[in-house]
Amino acid sequence: MHDDLYLALRQCIIDGDPEQAIELCQRALAAGIAALDAINEGLVPGLNHVGEQFAQGEMFLPDLVMAGEAMKAATAILEPAMQKAGARRETLGKVVLGTVQGDIHEIGKTLVGTMLSASGFEVHDLGVDVPFETFAVKARELNADVVGVSALLTTTMTGQKNVVEALERHGLRPRVKIVVGGAPVTRSWGEEIGADGYGEDALAAVALAKTLLGK
Amino acid sequence: MQPKLEILERELIERILGEAFTLIAEPGVKVQAPAAVELLAGAGARIEEGVAHIPEALARRALASAPREFFLHNRAGEAVVRYGGDAVQFDPGSSCVHILDPATLEHRMTQAADLVRLVQVAEMLPQYAAQSTAVVCNDVPKETGDLYRLFLVLLHSSKPIVTGAFAAHSVPVMIELLAADSGGREALRRKPRAVFDVCPSPPLHWSEFAGQNLADLARAGVPAEVVSVPLAGAAAPVTLAGTLVQHAAECISGIVIHQLAQPGAPVVWGGAPAIFDMRSGITAMGAVETAMLNVACAQVGKHLGLPTHGYLTGSDAKVMDAQAGMESGVAALMGALGGINMISGAGMLDSLACHSAEKLVLDAETIAMAQRVLQGIRPRGESLALAMFAQAGLRGEFLKLAETRKLFRSEQHLPSSVIDRGSLHAWEQSGAKDTFARARERVAELLAAYRRPALAAEVEGELKAIVGEQARRAGMEQLPGLGT
Question: ipTM score of the complex?
Answer without folding.
Answer: 0.84
